[in-house]
Write a structure and sequence with these properties.
By secondary structure, this protein is of the alpha+beta class. It contains 3 helices and 8 strands.
Length: 149
């Protein structure tokens, strides 16, 4: 048994929970920010079957050398606009990612990403830094969207 751990990331966005949930579950949005800096995830490399038991798959492409990294998960919970859970069964027996969208009531939403059963390799400072750049890309993308009506 490989040792696993957990990670939690929190970000606040000036957007509604509905908009943020949709950004995290729509290939046409995901393609703009999915993956760390230095990668691209073409829209045709993203599969979203948004229902419990549905698949969520992405294939990121390394901008430098063209190598690819596939993520294969299954949605465990889908509660628009406040909760999304998926499990990557192929990662050390099931890494679980839970995203909650907390409406702060002032036009801002806190997004909390909590991962459990995280393999040791993903817990390194380098891996965390890469994940943080993905969150930064999400921040920038959400900020670039037209204001909500």
């Amino acid at each position: 048994m490989t040792e696993t751990g957990e990670m939690t990331f929190r970000r606040v966005h000036r957007a509604s929970p509905e908009r943020l949930f949709d950004c995290m579950t729509t290939p046409e949005h995901l393609t703009h920010f999915w993956g760390p800096t230095g990668t691209t995830t073409p829209v045709e490399n993203i599969t979203v079957d948004l229902r419990p038991g549905g698949v969520f798959e992405t294939t990121m492409v390394n901008d430098a050398d063209g190598s690819t990294y596939a993520m294969k998960a299954v949605y465990a919970e889908v509660h628009r606009p406040d909760r999304l859970v998926w499990i990557e069964a192929g990662v050390e027996g099931g890494m679980r990612t839970e995203i909650t969208f907390v409406d702060l009531g002032d036009g801002r939403t806190e997004v909390v990403t909590h991962q459990t059963n995280v393999p040791a390799a993903y817990l390194s400072a380098e891996a965390r830094a890469g994940f943080t750049t993905s969150l930064d890309r999400f921040d920038s993308y959400v900020a670039s969207l037209a204001p909500e009506q």
